[in-house]
Design a protein that fits this description.
By secondary structure, the protein is α+β, with helices and mostly antiparallel strands. It contains four helices and four strands, in the order αααββββα. The chain has helices spanning 4-22, 26-65, 68-71, 120-124, and strands spanning 79-82, 87-92, 95-104, 107-116. Keywords: Membrane, Transmembrane, Transmembrane helix.
């Protein structure tokens, strides 16, 4: 689940904590604080990497469903706007759609709802 870097930083944090409790000096405090900062940094970078990968998978799914000749002018792609957490707004030639992502223990489910009939490519041009 977690990479070697995160596990090593957690172990360093634990050793730094034990060393600081047994022998409180500047070096033990430095090891403790440095390993804590490293652990937080690695955890946050892992979380952002997971979000970026999940977002690119969803966008690939959207581009598969709303392909160019029907939903967008030739040579262009549909416009995608990320709304709050599990919602995406998709603007096409045939109107505006809302993608709702359902996550459960069985997997990920996608639900598309049509919101309006406006041709957004004519509105933009």
């Amino acid at each position: 689940m977690y990479g070697k870097e995160f596990i090593c930083s957690v172990m360093g944090f634990c050793f730094g904590l034990i060393g600081f409790v047994l022998n409180p000096n500047i070096l033990s405090g430095f090891v403790f604080v440095t390993s804590l900062v490293a652990m937080i940094y690695i955890y946050k970078s892992k979380r952002t990497r997971e979000v970026i990968i999940a977002d690119s998978v969803v966008k690939a799914r959207i581009y598969e469903k709303f392909y160019a000749p029907i939903y967008a002018p030739e040579g262009e792609t549909v416009l995608i706007e990320k709304a709050p957490e599990n919602f995406y707004r998709i603007f096409t030639k045939k109107g505006e759609y809302l993608l709702i992502i359902h996550t459960s223990t069985k997997g990920i489910g996608y639900e598309y709802k049509k919101i309006s009939e406006v041709d957004y490519f004519k509105e933009i041009a």
